[in-house]
Each structure stands twice: as structure tokens, then as C-alpha cells.
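Assemble and predict.
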Amino acid sequence: MSNMTKYPGLAAVLAALAALPAWAQDAAEAVEEVAEAAPALDTGDTAWMLISTALVLFMILPGVALFYGGLVRTKNMLSILMQTTAITAMCMIIYVLYGYSFAFGGSDSAFFGGFGKLFLAGIGPDTLSGTIPEYVFVSFQMTFVCITSALIIGGFAERIRFGAVLLFVALWATFVYFPVAHMAWDANGLFFGWEVFDFAGGTVVHINAGVAALVGAVVLGPRIGYGKENMAPHSLTLTLVGAAILFVGWFGFNAGSALGAGATAGLAMINTFTATAGGILGWVLVEYLSRGKASMLGGASGMIAGLVAITPAAGVVGPVGAIFLGAIASAVCYWFVAVVKNRLGYDDSLDVFGIHCIGGIVGAVGAGVFCAPSLGGQGFAGDRGMAEQVIYQVMAVGVTILWCAVVSFILFKIVGLVMGGLRVTPEAEREGLDLTAHGERAYHY
Amino acid sequence: MKLIIAAIKPFKLEEVREALTAIGVRGMMVTEIKGFGAQSGHTEIYRGAEYAVNFVPKVKLEIAVADAIADEVVGTIRRTARTDKIGDGKIFVLDLEHAVRVRTGETDDDAL
């Protein structure tokens, strides 16, 4: 995402060099001069980032909430809406207290942003991050933690205790999300140093959320009656509404990750269109050929798979390459959720792993392929060839999976101990979380 | 008096109601139900998860009529609810002991 964190320092050095031969000034004045010569606030960039930030929030509430909510059974609808809402609020607060510092606090570590910006210390309305106010950058990044954390709940939907999910997410954001975000997007981060392409969060958001969801699904175990009882989605209508909101909001997510209203944002926008179209048609085609019917849920799933796949690649591939990237991701995700998952027998309720992690891997690796100029892309990092770029992409994917899987597993165990169990009682699970955890019902017919 | 209980295909409800009204039936109770008979259910697939849906949606009619028109009512339902495909439904006829109209207190045939 951000080269921007690099730029202020670079610009300061250049400005300082330019100022040196000029008439004598004392050091303090020179510093002040430098500060004024640093990149100025661009109102166009700022306007776009304000909108993008709100668009990403719209992806979560109501986007993810409805997309997921429609996929569960009637008795658990409110638990999904409520978990999403509470997680979003909680992550916002965590982010301003210490999350931003842990991710972008300015430390030299490759894994940890440090304590330099705890409670957003040192940031004021006039502080800039690149050409936008730092508060806007903080807000934009904040929505990414919220959506990533909200995505995880699909893995263990319909059976987790409300308190357990909140405690887990708070710890997970702290020990998994912030470090990985630092690795990918901070100028001192591990992946950033490897010159890995992760434009808007293939590793940070999708692989991360998918792995955490899978670990959760395995640790909690399958829902009662899984594989025997009918667990069909209660409203695919709401699922499509949610998916479509995600599609629209994703322009803030991807084109916003350009951190400005320029050429890269335009590229990310058209790629987000074409990859998603490829994703929808890819899923529909594979499903029609293998089952004889093209399902609406398949269309919505292909939409998400395409969006996930283009996320890490949106700023580096071309619009035609993006079509293939989206379609390939859909085909792989379809195979994963319809075949592999059923053989393995784990109950990732809403296929967070099968779509977000698998689609995220296809996108992250595919970014290293489709960025090739011969495939219409923007070129490799430095003077790399495709093989070398792909190796670095795979390394970033591997580190993310390993880090997230190990830490998530430990955190689930800790939360289980602290809370006296992660799962609701079998009676509560049968009754539904809406009534037993929240004391209300979603629908009164 | 007879109580006629019929399970029919939901889309046939309006046609059956019209035909019964035409032969003098003045009321009925209608319930949306699920059930199974000779017609087997169907399979639904959600991202590869297959669910056999064994209970098929039907509409249940309960009609209380005088003995004199019971056979005609049964015949009318059978004629109008038919599609000649499996799953057209069933009709049951029971003896009805007693009937009361709540508003007036009229009983039996007068209450129908």
C-alpha cells in the first residue's frame, strides 16, 4: 500500500540539500523550512481518501454483516449482525489507543511499529501522511482492521460465545493483524523490504482472516448436526445485498489504497471492476459445467473471490490480466469449498478460508505473475523477473500463514481458558444464538 | 356433516376455492404445510453442501360441509386440483359430530 511512509523522510532530505547552499540560517530555521517544503496537503487526494474510508466502513456495516447474516440460519442472524457491529466498534478504539502505533509507529523493526504513536501521540489536524492528513490515513487504516476482524467470525459462526469472540478479536488484532500490517505496509516492514506486492491487503486482510477463521473452525469443532442436518442459508437475498455492498465498497478499499486520487487509483478501480466480473463469470461457468445449474450463491461467491484476488494486485496488474486473475481465483475457490472442504470435514461455516485465504493466495501469487509487462501489468519490482517476484510473493504468503496460524491457535486456547470455553452450550446452539446470547429474534412474522 | 381435509399443490388453491364457492361451499380453513407422500423431495446445493429436502410444501384445506354435498365437494377438489403429475395431494373425509356458529349459537348444518 504505502510508499508514502517513505516519502516524507526522502522529501525532507532533498529539501535540506536544496536549502544548504542558501544564505546562512540557523539549524532550527532550516528544519522549519524543510517542514514547509515537505509534500503539501492535496485536497483532491484528501477528498478521495475521506470517501474511501467511509466506503470501507460501508463494506463492514452493513456489507459483511448482511453477506454473512444471510448465510446463517434464521436463529443465528442477529448474532452475526451483533458480532460484526461490536467487533467494528472495538477495533476502532483499539486502533487509536495502540493499533496504529503497533503498525505504523515508526520503529525500525521489521515486525512491530513500536510505541511511538500510542494514543495517536504527535498527530494533530495539520500532521500529514504523504499528501493527506495523518488522521485520514489513520481512519482509513482503522477500517481495515475492523473488516479483517469481522471477516474471521464466518469460520466459527453459529456456535461461538459472544464474549469469547470479542476477546479473541482484541488479542488477534494486537498480535496478528498489527504485526502483519507493519510487515506489509510500513517502510521498515519485512514484506515491504522484500518489495512484495500487496496493494490493498491480500496477506494482511484476506489470508490473515482466512487462516484465523480456519484455526477457529478446527479448535471449536463443527456445528452440532454438521453434515447431517439442513444448514442452508436463511436468506440468499440478504447475502446478495451484502455482497453487492461489498463490491461497491471495495472501490474505497482498493482504489483508496493508492492513498491519493491519481493514476494508481484509476488503475485499481478498473482492475477491481474487471477482476470481479471475471470472478463472477468464472464461478458461474465452473458450477454450470460441473453441476448443471448456476446458483445465485455461486454468483455472489465468485464476486467475493474476484474481489479478494484483485486486492493484492489492484495497483500492479492490467485490466485484462485482472479478468484472468479473478476467474482463476473463482475456479480454485469453487474447487476448494465444493470438493476439498467436504473431504477434509472441518466446518468453516461461511467458507472464510475457502474464499478469503485461498482467493487471497491466488491474488498474492498472481500479482507476481500478472504484473508482467507482457501480460499488461506495471512491471516487477526493481530489475526482477517473474520467477523471483513470485518467490517473494510466496514467501510473504508463507510468513503470513505461519504467523497467523500459530498465534491464532495460541490465542484461541488462551481465550478458551480465560472465558471457560469458546463454545455455547449444546442447548443454546440448538436454540440459536439470537435468543440465548442476545435475548431477541431477528424476524417476527 | 363431514369434515373434508385435502392437501393440494399450493398454486392450485385459488382454482379450488373458486370451484368450491361455485357449488355452494361457504367457508374453509387454509394452512400452509409441509409433508411427503409418493412425491419425493429434491436436493439443494449450497457451495457444495448438499441438502435433501424431503418435505414438500403443500396447502391443507379443512372444509366442513353437510352430508348432502360432501361427495360433490370431494369430486370438485379432485377435478380442479389435478395436474396428473405425482404430488397432486390427498383428500380425507371424516365424520363431523357437532358444529356451532360463534356469533349466533346456531348449530350443526345451520352453522356451516
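The longest strand of chain B covers residues 56-65.
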